[in-house]
Amino acid sequence: MKVPEWLKNLYDWAKILGLISAAAALPAGWLLGAERGVIVGVVVPAAFLALFATSFLVAGVRGKIADAIRILEASDYTKAEEKKRVASDLKESSKCINILVAILAAVVVLSLGIAFTSPLYHFFWTATPTSIRFAELRYHQASREAALFKRAPFLRAVITSLEEEGGGSGKPFRIVLGTTKPFKHPTPPFTCTLEVDGGKYLVNGYAFRLHSTADRTLYEPVPVTLPAAHSVVFAIPASEDGDVLLVVARITAPDTPEFPADLTAVSSLRLVPPKE
Question: Which of 18, 33, 45, 170 has the greatest number of C-beta atoms within 10 Å?
């Protein structure tokens, strides 16, 4: 079967754009995250491919129609071979027009997809995290908190409240501050519980979801419940990729005045399975 020249050209361009897609996905993944990088690496080359395909098809249809008009206007149209050629050209043009309509429909869908990039991204990539790990978990030291209090002055009152409550218990306690590693993708609401050293210490405290915009970081309080003295449960709201949890808690040692030297190693934010 003879392959039309325009189809050969389109195939060649598709191979080139495939390389562009792979090349675009790498920096896009580094700048925007793996998931969005894949989207950018596919959507952008696909848009160029649709443009080139449309251009080739339009050029082909124009040529076929021009030949048909020339033959129809010529005096030798009565020749059987010319009639056959006109019919063949018009049939090919009709097929090309059908393909053009399909491409234009795809472009419309693609345009709508770009217009609703965020909803589509959330639809495909929103998932409950499989684990939550602390990037840093340390003991509160007043001399180190100047920068923290400058970013979020209200935390001074939160820490003071926890210290006053702990002082009234008559038991040794420490205030701890922790931030988790950023979420790698959007999440639905979920619940997690904070435990220290397998429940050896009494835990009480608060958590905040940190969401960064272009010029500031928003601190959203997280609902807290205390089902047991040795753990605190946080009800995390729906979050975006890149969001971080800030934990401000008080740990109390009921049986020993000793506290773990490495909090990160003995502390965990354990996901709580949703209720059926």
Answer: 45
Can you tell me the distance from the alpha carbon of 92 to that of 87, in angstroms, rounded to the nearest whole number?
9
Is residue 51 within 8 A of residue 101, CB to CB? The reply is: no
Distance CA 186, CA 119 (A): 11
Query: What is the tens place of the pLDDT at every residue in 202-243?
Result: 899 999 999 988 778 999 999 999 877 788 999 999 999 999
- Pick from 269, 274, 180, 190: which is nearest to 235 by CA? 190
**What is the gyration radius of the CA atoms in the chain, in angstroms?**
32
Q: Cα separations (Å) of 179 from 130, 166, 171, 215, 237?
A: 17, 22, 26, 20, 16
CATH classification code of 134-272: 2.60.40
Domain parsing of the chain, residue ranges: 5-125, 134-272
Phi first, then psi: give them for residue 211, nearest 5 degrees. -120, 115
Encode pLDDT of 58-117 as tens digits.
666 666 666 666 666 665 555 667 667 666 766 776 676 667 667 666 766 766 665 556
Amino acid at 256: T
Residues in the chain: 276
Adjacent-strand bridge partners of 228: 231
Give the integer Cα–Cα distance in Å for 151 and 142.
15
Q: Say what the pTM is.
A: 0.62
Dist CA 235 CA 190 (whole Å)? 6
